[in-house]
Each structure stands twice: as structure tokens, then as C-alpha cells.
Amino acid sequence: MEMQQRGPARMRGGLPEVDVGTVDGLLAETHRAGAVAVLLSAGDPLRFPEALDVAVVLPELIAAFQDRLRGAVIAREAEAELGTRFGVRVQPSLILCRGADTLGLIAKIQDWSVYVDRISRLIDRPLGATATVVASIVPVHQSAGAER
Predict the structure, then answer these.
(1) Which domains does the chain carry?
(2) CDD domains, alphabetically (predicted)?
């Protein structure tokens, strides 16, 4: 992906790229606009190929939530420090923030309905409520003939 300089943040995939020095400005600007920031901590796409899927889904989520969400991609060199700050334990993760407050994280690629449900709950939750993490859920199937 080609990166262009745009104000304090570079653009990546149509979304601004933030780092340790620019993330607070983006969070403050997004909050002043009455929106929630969604930051993508993608990790190395060679190690985490689903990061590319999440990067494709993020602009679609922003469009679906209209003016309620604004997205950005965390620069690779800032992922460790910002990951610690926001509580990222799994990559890729979407980090939802209202101002400087982390509302929650959604880890890995999810079904569209999971994204819509979790994001709706996070952005509609009252301020001060506990942040949550959504991880991939793998269904457990019982083998044929197993007792229920």
C-alpha cells in the first residue's frame, strides 16, 4: 500500500495512519466530531493473513455506521507501544475509543453480524462501563452418537 503524507497522519488504504505522536490528536478530533474512533492494529500480514481481511472490512463498517465511526490504521512501528496502551493481546484487533477512553476491542476477523452487534453495543454503552474484548469463537461440535 502506498502511503501519502496528509497533515499529521499518513494515509493507508484510504484511512489515516497513526503512531504514538499522532494518535491522541486523531482521538480528540474524532471525539469533537461526535464520533467513535476505530483503530486497526493489524500486525504483520505475513504472520496474521486475516489482517488483510479486517483491513478490507473496516472501511465497510465505517460506511455502515455512517458518521458514528472514524477509522485509522496504527503504524507497524507503533503497534507494540499503542497495543500495550489499548490492551491489544491478539492481532489483528479493532480498538474502539471515545476520546481517550477505550470502549473495547474486537479481535480477529468476525462475521458481519458480530461486528455490527458488538460495535453497536460498544458505541451505545454509557460512559464509564467496562471495556470488553471479542475473540474468535470456534463452535464445539459433538461427535455423532455422543450423549447430550
Answers:
(1) 4-130 (3.40.30.10)
(2) HyaE
Among residues 119, 136, 121, the alpha carbon closest in space to that of 64 is found at 119
Q: SS3 for 39?
A: strand
- CB 96: neighbour CB atoms within 10 A? 23
Residues 52-95: pLDDT tens digits? 999 999 999 999 999 899 999 999 999 999 999 999 999 999 99
Chain centroid offset of residue 108 CA: 10
Q: Look up residue 119 and give its three cell numbers.
A: 460495535
Q: What is the pTM of this model?
A: 0.79
- Residue 43, SS3? coil
| CA distances from residue 64 to 11, 27, 47 in whole angstroms, order as listed | 21, 20, 29
- Residues 6 or more apart in contact with residue 2 via CB below 8 angstroms: none
